Amino acid sequence: MLSLTIGLRAFRIESVAQVRSSFRPLRLKNYRIYGCRNQQRNLYFSHPSAFFLIRKKLLTKPHPGCETWCRTTRNFCKASVGSEIRVKRGDRVNVHMKVQDPETGTVIVETKPDGETVSFVAGQGQVIPALERICLGMTIGEVWTGTVKPEEAFGVRDRSQIYSVSLDSFDDELKLSLSAGMVVAVEGRNSVARVISINKEKGTVILDENHEYASKSLDFNIELVSIEPAKSAWSGVQVETISPGDGQTFPAFGNRVTVHYTGTLASNGKVFDSSYSRGEPFGFTVGAGRVIRGLENGIIKMSLGEKGRMYIPSEFAYGAIGNDIIPPDANLVFDIEVLEISNHSR
Q1: What is the pLDDT of residue 333?
Q2: What region holds the PPIase FKBP-type domain (predicted)?
Q3: Of 22, 125, 172, 225, whose CA is between 20 and 30 Å from 292?
Q4: What is residue 144's predicted lDDT score, i.e. its pLDDT?
Q5: What is the pLDDT of residue 218?
Q6: How many CB atoms lie within 10 A of CB 315?
Q7: Which residues in the chain show pLDDT less than 70?
Q8: What's the CATH architecture for 234-342?
């Protein structure tokens, strides 16, 4: 048993559990002293590194293996050994997140219960601006909690994204089930929209492409789970499964593959090519050398029906030369859906 005395207050420490549940900050003038919450076997409360000294809003270097004080959340955040590594542009990160509407209390997204993390490469514009901004500079185990304004969440409502279409533009089967609140794909615009209202007398449907939570400030809780440094994140072609395929039918050398895709620059998320915008899928023969090497290397990892995100380093794309659209040394990201795999080439 350890006895700790500071000022006029004393604590008897018998277990780690007691430390976690009962040890509280002591206020000494302009300072606040927090007990080390290290859960390793030995606790040395007498050692200077076992305390974090906070003056105003400045925090000393965290003690590895302990829970550290987060200046943003004003609460303890979990930190692990080696957590000095911080997220920078180009790193692949995995985060747990919870997004909630503060007005209604509705939970919009929560990943922890399912054990699934949100994965993205920082600095590529793959996620909403707030998530990217918050994660840059974070360390493993750090937690950020706060309110995000609409401009950095799901945007400000744009009236031009609300429009009327003819009811006849929907197929007969969909007409029967069409109702307000449904989400439908909008052909020719490569987007989705919510059905706002249906006027059967006039034969019109009002669609809204704005996000359901556009123009709303939202509460975010983000925990950084892991960091994959930029160098390893772009070592070789990698495929992230978004929606699994049959898991059995994979393209092989000589097979013709038909896909829908959208290609973007990893540096800024700018779209440079898309089969969706052309309104027809794209086909190629594996091993024929008619597409970039990274696309061939990645497609053989995807099964029939799979939707995935393919990360292609520049050396497997257009290299140091680039082309009219692709800058030199540009890493590429492809969102791909495998539509068909046939055993012949054309």
Answers
A1: 93
A2: 90-178, 254-342
A3: 125
A4: 95
A5: 96
A6: 16
A7: 1-83, 188-190, 231-235, 343-346
A8: Roll (3.10)
Asked whether the beta carbons of 46 and 36 are under 8 A apart, the reply is no
User: What is the CATH code for 159-208?
Assistant: 2.40.10
Known catalytic residues are: 261, 272-273, 292, 318, 334
Three-class DSSP labels, 55-69: ECCEECCCCCCCEEE
CATH 3.40.50.150 fits 92-153+215-227, yes or no: no
Task: Report the pLDDT value the prediction gives residue 235, as an integer from 0 to 100.
Answer: 67
Query: CB of 145 within 8 A of CB of 110?
Result: no
Rg of the chain on CA atoms, in Å:
26
Whether this prediction's pTM lies above 0.85 is answered by no
DSSP string, 49-113: GGEEEEETTEEPPP-TTSEEEETTTTEEEE--TTTT-B--TT-EEEEEEEEE-TTT--EEEE-GG
Q: According to CATH, where is 3.10.50.40 located in the chain?
A: 92-153+215-227, 234-342
